[in-house]
């Protein structure tokens, strides 16, 4: 796999540049397919049935979404004579394309592939799937944001926040918890894309850094379940503390960076008259807050002389926290950069 890493990174960079520089739907579809194919080796990098199952589910789901996108392009080209994503005039085709992009992102009710795929991947590979891989569909939704039906967008966002929080309550596998957290975070990111696309970019930026910090610390701690997390603070207190604060940032508690996009999203939804959407998502996010706080309690609050309800693992030499985790944690947990970006956005869009 190290031989293919430069190829994977180069391909992902090229596809990102295509998304940023083109509005032609077929070219963006090709970039989506390239990014899908290049992520498959990251998923199936081990000869393990779980990895093979995860890659199969991922490929079939992404292929279905890609078929819907190219179908929408073909019908729009026939009816309107245009291949630009910003010129899809038919509301039905816009809805089909938006739903296809929701499948690629993994929102409810198209979320079933996300936890199973993440469970079969390493934490480092999961970073690509949960952040970089979502950038292409997010850019496409950004370009077609004025055409998206807000009622459909709000229903999908409410369902994603509620179902992800509900399914995460009974989970003991941390990678699945991170997957459900990603679903809920993307719902908060996309619910406001029609009225404030720049706020969506800010929310995705903060989400990407925070979720990457969480996954890097989990890999550093070699933690796969909550039972293993109970002894993490004793083995690596600094890394465990970073995990704690990144989890609290994902939950949206102030004054951490994760609070900022949720606050601005609620403010903008109320300003647009979608009070019930904001209220419902806020109440549903309490479900996610519960398992965030449970992870925080298990990682940092079960210290001696308290009894940890888990089997003690063999003590290995404690590794120092690397520079990547420290730098990403600092970027994720400070509000200085986020506040500067918020000020620029409010001046630009006037809310």
UniProtKB/TrEMBL annotation:
It comes from Crocodylus johnstoni. This is NADH-ubiquinone oxidoreductase chain 2. The chain crosses the membrane at residues 56-75, 95-114, 150-169, 199-218, 238-261, 273-293, 323-345. The keyword Transmembrane helix applies. One of its GO terms (molecular function) is NADH dehydrogenase (ubiquinone) activity. Pfam families: NADH_dehy_S2_C, Proton_antipo_M. GO terms for cellular component: mitochondrial inner membrane. It comes from the Eukaryota. Residues 23-288 form the NADH:quinone oxidoreductase/Mrp antiporter transmembrane domain. Core subunit of the mitochondrial membrane respiratory chain NADH dehydrogenase (Complex I) which catalyzes electron transfer from NADH through the respiratory chain, using ubiquinone as an electron acceptor. Essential for the catalytic activity and assembly of complex I. It is found in: Mitochondrion inner membrane. It is a multi-pass membrane protein. Keywords: Electron transport, Membrane, Mitochondrion, Mitochondrion inner membrane, NAD, Respiratory chain, Translocase, Transmembrane, Transmembrane helix, Transport, Ubiquinone. It catalyses: a ubiquinone + NADH + 5 H(+)(in) = a ubiquinol + NAD(+) + 4 H(+)(out). Its EC number is 7.1.1.2. The keyword Transport applies. The gene is ND2. GO terms for biological process: mitochondrial electron transport, NADH to ubiquinone.
